[in-house]
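assembly run, all chains below
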Amino acid sequence: MPENMERVPLLEIEGLKKYYPIEAGISKKKIGEVKAVDNINLTVYKNEVLGVVGESGCGKTTLGRTVLRIIEPTAGKVKFHFDDKEVDFTALDKKELRKMRRYLQMIFQNPYTSLNPRMTIFDIVAEPMRLGGGFTEDEISERVKTLINKVGLEVKHLNRYPHAFSGGQRQRIGIARALVMDPKFVVADEAVSALDVSIQAQILNLLKELKDENNLTYMFIAHNLSVVEHVSDRVCVMYLGRVVEMAETEELFYHPKHPYTEALLSAIPVADPTVENNRIMLPGEVGNAANLPSGCCFHPRCKYACEECKTKVPELRELTPGHFAACHRIEDLKLEGIGELKVKNSSKS
Amino acid sequence: MEDYILQVKNLKTYFYMDNGTLKAVDDVSFNLRRDETIGIIGESGCGKSVTASSILRIIQNPGKTLAGEILFDDGEKEVNLVNYGPDSKQMRAIRGKDISMIFQEPMASLAPVYTIGAQMMEAVMVHQKKKDKKAAKKLCMEMLEEVGMPDPEQKFNSYPHQLSGGQCQRAMIALAMVNRPKILIADEPTTALDVTVQAQITALMKKFQKEYHMSIIYITHDMGVIAEMADTIAVMYLGRVVEWGSVYQIFKNPIHPYTRGLLNSMPVLGQKSDKPLNAIEGNVPVPLDPPDECGFCSRCPERTEECDKSVPQILEVEEGHFVRCFHCQGKRNGGEA
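ok done. output:
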């Protein structure tokens, strides 16, 4: 986001939770809970791209979906600001929700499963307008044609079915569908991870172009940190359902404050054979969300863990303006960002 | 005379479909030295996995390896694998013993109805002609421990669905390594895994390479992983190797427009800018009855008339650096076009 612009909150997420019950036996007795998203507080500002990163099972997709109420949250509020009004998105009933949907849209991960194979491209892109109601067929046809050109496809493609398109083209169709109602906020859930590198770049460029043109705000969910760094203004790192760190992109990548962020950054392979990687090898794998480790859920893999970490859950604290982290030992740790982790090794080349 | 363990020469694997001939691997050549890693990179559909399957002779109908040589030097004599039938005794003796493979999706490529232990035992009993089950089991347990499997005793009796993705990949590696292969083919071994687990698995493969002196064919589309793993790299596009050279030559002095396009289209960590990425225009075509032209010409920014008329030969532009492009001349020694 340009610095001279004032930050206007678009979306305020307060105490958002999504717990899935674990049931056993015929009586479906509840024997436990999977805390997919556990008490998340964050604000998305107008016109920014908020990157959400984390490994599989960290709850980033569930977060994106509960925000849009594709999955109903267990608890928490999502406040949506627009036209000087504040709407509590979580309190809307079905009818009101349908009306509001047009402002909050989603681009899905897998372009091969997120398009109905029996619908033509025209019908797929037009569906949100038909569901939203209030448009004549002429208006719909006009809008769909404009959109399909904008995403780099041609009007002649509209009568074909999804199977006739490649992965990259399908993702363009998915983007057209998300944007057809002129939304304010778009959740892009791993929108480029199923695509090849050369196609991925095309789609990233397209997303940026459309954002600038239509004043969009994105929540960009991905596991690829290089991609997230490229597109995001701010980045939020998740681990086992919780936000462990959040900051402006550059600040987070160069001055991480959470050990998990540090390890994640060091694990990224660098496409440069002359770069020596001081890799921090995390032992084990991501913990079990149904049986969270005590205290800080990262402590079993953390090389800095102390006694306190095993018992007390760390709060997300604001360290410097805009930089949040949840770790007991922030003050006494000196963590390395990508500046120090990836060192050019001159002797090797 | 270089000490090559594997030489692939002009390999052609075509798939005969109802609607035409799919030239999945078309005239591919590369060499693999002992103790070295060759990386094969390219986008989906470029033929990198089919190349690997061709080496192991596990191409299924309607595919057929119809030309070329795969010369494998097992230390005593050199054999041409193309001469062996896919089901022949000789091929079976090599597959899983001298050359073994790790597959892309660890969850899907282990047999779901056998325990990890049973699958490993089978590999040992068949190839090492062990009669003694106890000794075989001991070998398997050692291997599981070596790949860093947590609680190996219990995991030996577990079924694949009881393991996580990372553990499955470790089991897969244990299975591939248990017979101490001379060549390990790894087909996108970490693509389905998280970055922190990917780091563990690549480190493990490097450790084994050092310990057991094996050569690795590492197939991936991830330029980052390949820069860390490989000694030499073959870049594939539409069934052909378009550029082949050392890891430094490919990353520091890429010559083929496709290689340069690939490297430029990735967002690079620590180099954030507001400029759009240099994407390669267009889509990868399907090599179904491909016309006689350079496969990349439809997307190439440097296309000329020549490119539409015939397939360029792969030429050596500097020592050990081969490029298949009409316009590669004059670009050696770091010259940017």
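Chain B touches chain A through 46 residues (CB under 8 Å).

The first strand of chain B starts at residue 4 and ends at 17.

not gonna interpret more than that til we talk
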